[in-house]
């Protein structure tokens, strides 16, 4: 299957998780002027943690539960969500960062150098785990601490959901984290300054020095 298909699958899954948890984000952060920018990271964190609790092999069930729960929150609280240009702005920003970083990684897709080999080993350990905590790939008979592999679990959960091979998921995970860092930093900057241009400046520094 084409890697472009996996790329689009990941973008769609992240978009749905963000949209589904927007009502929750809207309710959790009433003091913030902008709440949509935090919905993706909230949705992914919730999806990952529930996958950890119930089984990484049941990600499709967890995915559906989050969608239904988000819809129930939306209906029960009767939230007047403003799907304004701000929401479109964050979606365009995330998509641009995600696809651009994936394009860059496509030219340098080898998993080699720095800590990539270690990250890939942990990612494989989490991806293949039949129960948690997963086995430590560096120390036979020992298990990984949750502190070290939550990010790897997030990537593995999305890989299981979309049927993505782990070697492809590694680079898509890097692209996802970059895009999340930029969009979340932008939202944080906007909430602190109430100025879109300062928010974009913060995102620029985040993307440059990540």
TrEMBL record:
<feature type="transmembrane region" description="Helical">
    <location>
        <begin position="12"/>
        <end position="29"/>
    </location>
</feature>
<protein>
    <submittedName>
        <fullName>Uncharacterized protein</fullName>
    </submittedName>
</protein>
<keyword id="KW-0812">Transmembrane</keyword>
<feature type="transmembrane region" description="Helical">
    <location>
        <begin position="168"/>
        <end position="192"/>
    </location>
</feature>
<keyword id="KW-0472">Membrane</keyword>
<feature type="transmembrane region" description="Helical">
    <location>
        <begin position="89"/>
        <end position="108"/>
    </location>
</feature>
<feature type="transmembrane region" description="Helical">
    <location>
        <begin position="60"/>
        <end position="77"/>
    </location>
</feature>
<keyword id="KW-1133">Transmembrane helix</keyword>
<dbReference type="Pfam" id="PF10060">
    <property type="entry name" value="DUF2298"/>
</dbReference>
<dbReference type="InterPro" id="IPR018746">
    <property type="entry name" value="DUF2298"/>
</dbReference>
